[in-house]
UniProtKB/TrEMBL annotation, chain A:
The keyword RNA-binding applies. GO terms for biological process: mRNA splicing, via spliceosome. One of its GO terms (cellular component) is U4/U6 x U5 tri-snRNP complex. This is U6 snRNA-associated Sm-like protein LSm8. PROSITE patterns: SM. SMART domains: Sm. The keyword Nucleus applies. Pfam families: LSM. SUPFAM superfamilies: Sm-like ribonucleoproteins (SSF50182). Component of the precatalytic spliceosome (spliceosome B complex). Component of the U4/U6-U5 tri-snRNP complex, a building block of the precatalytic spliceosome (spliceosome B complex). The U4/U6-U5 tri-snRNP complex is composed of the U4, U6 and U5 snRNAs and at least PRPF3, PRPF4, PRPF6, PRPF8, PRPF31, SNRNP200, TXNL4A, SNRNP40, SNRPB, SNRPD1, SNRPD2, SNRPD3, SNRPE, SNRPF, SNRPG, DDX23, CD2BP2, PPIH, SNU13, EFTUD2, SART1 and USP39, plus LSM2, LSM3, LSM4, LSM5, LSM6, LSM7 and LSM8. It comes from Drosophila melanogaster (Fruit fly). Plays a role in pre-mRNA splicing as component of the U4/U6-U5 tri-snRNP complex that is involved in spliceosome assembly, and as component of the precatalytic spliceosome (spliceosome B complex). The heptameric LSM2-8 complex binds specifically to the 3'-terminal U-tract of U6 snRNA. Plays role in pre-mRNA splicing as component of the U4/U6-U5 tri-snRNP complex that is involved in spliceosome assembly, and as component of the precatalytic spliceosome (spliceosome B complex). The heptameric LSM2-8 complex binds specifically to the 3'-terminal U-tract of U6 snRNA. Residues 1-75 form the Sm domain.
TrEMBL record, chain B:
The keyword Nucleotide-binding does not apply. Its main location: nucleus. Keywords: Acetylation, mRNA processing, mRNA splicing, Nucleus, Ribonucleoprotein, RNA-binding, Spliceosome. The lineage of its organism: Eukaryota, Metazoa, Ecdysozoa, Arthropoda, Hexapoda. Component of the precatalytic spliceosome (spliceosome B complex). Component of the U4/U6-U5 tri-snRNP complex, a building block of the precatalytic spliceosome (spliceosome B complex). The U4/U6-U5 tri-snRNP complex is composed of the U4, U6 and U5 snRNAs and at least PRPF3, PRPF4, PRPF6, PRPF8, PRPF31, SNRNP200, TXNL4A, SNRNP40, SNRPB, SNRPD1, SNRPD2, SNRPD3, SNRPE, SNRPF, SNRPG, DDX23, CD2BP2, PPIH, SNU13, EFTUD2, SART1 and USP39, plus LSM2, LSM3, LSM4, LSM5, LSM6, LSM7 and LSM8. This is U6 snRNA-associated Sm-like protein LSm7. Residues 19-100 form the Sm domain.
UniProtKB/TrEMBL annotation, chain C:
Residues 2-75 form the Sm domain. GO terms for biological process: mRNA splicing, via spliceosome; nuclear-transcribed mRNA catabolic process. PROSITE patterns: SM. Keywords: mRNA processing, mRNA splicing, Nucleus, Ribonucleoprotein, RNA-binding, Spliceosome. The gene is LOC108077129. Its main location: nucleus. Residues 96-105 have a biased composition (Low complexity). This is U6 snRNA-associated Sm-like protein LSm4. Residues 106-118 have a biased composition (Gly residues). It comes from the Eukaryota.
Amino acid sequence: MSGLESYINHTVSIITADGRNFIGTLKGFDQTINIIIDECHERVFSTTSGIEQIVLGLHIIRGDNIAVIGLIDETIDSRLDLANIRGEPLGPVVH
Amino acid sequence: MADKKVGGNNDGKEKRRKESILDLSKYLEKQIRVKFAGGREASGILKGYDALLNLVMDNTVEYLRDSDEPYKLTEDSTRSLGLVVCRGTALVLICPQDGVESIANPFITQ
Amino acid sequence: MLPLSLLKTAQSHPMLVELKNGETYNGHLVSCDSWMNINLRDVICTSKDGDRFWRMPECYIRGSTIKYLRIPDEVIDMVKEDAQAKSRNRTEMNKNRGGNSSQNQRGGGGGGRPGGGNRNNAGNRSGQGYGGGPSNNAMRLGGAAGQQGNRLPHAAKNNRK
C-alpha cells in the first residue's frame, strides 16, 4: 500500500523529475504511481518576479517521472500571496 | 488478459491487453522514421520486426545533430547507415516517413 | 480511478503528450495498452525548445518515454460511467473508509486561490462549448495545446537555468 489512497480527492503538489511543480486534485493512481491529477496548475518559480500559475487542466503524470507527491493544506495554501513569492526554480533530477 | 489477436488491429477499443497496439506489418517495405532514447533519429525502409519492436531497416539514414545543441537535428545533414537492426528497447517513437513535414508554428494565436 | 482507465477512456479524444526528452505531441489518441504505449493520429510534434514543428499523420510512442499526458477535462467524467461497472471494489473500499467518497465536487478547485488560479479553468468542465461535436472539440484542444506548445517550453527553460 502506497499510502496515497488517503490523498485521493485532495489537493496535492507534485514535483517531477524535470523540476516542475504541479498542483491539483489527485483523482487516482496505480501501482507504478502513475497519477491522475485534475484541475492541474503549474507553478513556475522565479527570482525576479512572483510565482506564475499556468492552468493546465486534467493530466496523467507517469510515475517514473515523479519525485515528490505532497498533500497541500488548502487553508494555508489559499493564504499564500503567490504574486509576491520569489524563489529559485528547481533543477532537474540528475541521473 | 489472454486474448491474443494475431495480426488483428482493432484499435484497442475494448481490449486492453493484447499482442501489440502497433501493427508494423502495414509499414513493411515502406519508409519509416524512428526516434531513439538519447536523441538519435533515423529513417529507412522497414524490412522486418519482432514482438519486442526490434526492427530491421534498409537504406537507413541517420539525421545528425549539432554537438553543442544535441536535440536540434538538421534535416539536411545525414549519414548513411545502410542495413541496420534497431534495438526495440531503445525506440521512443515510430511513424511512417510519408507525410512527415516540418511546418510553421500551427499554434499561433490569432 | 486508474490512470490507464482514464487513458483508455480518452481514446479518440485530442491530447497533448510530453516526452521525457521534452518534445510534445498533439494528436488524437487512437489506441493505448497497459504499458502506456500509445498510437496518435493527426499529430503535431513540437521540439523541446518550442520553436520547431512537424506534422505527422500518425505515430507510435513508447509508454516509458512519456512524462505526462494532458487530456480534455470532460474525459474524467466519462470514466465514471464505466468505472462504476468496472471497479465496484474500489468504490466499496472508499465507502468503508468513510470520509471522502462522496462524489468529489469540491467547491474550491483552482478558482478559489488568490494567486490567479482562476484564469480559465473553473468553469471548463461544466460543458459549455462541448456540444459542437468533434471538430469543435478538436479546435478547443488545439487552442489549449497551442498555448502550451508555446508556453511550456519556456516554463521548462526557466526551470532549467
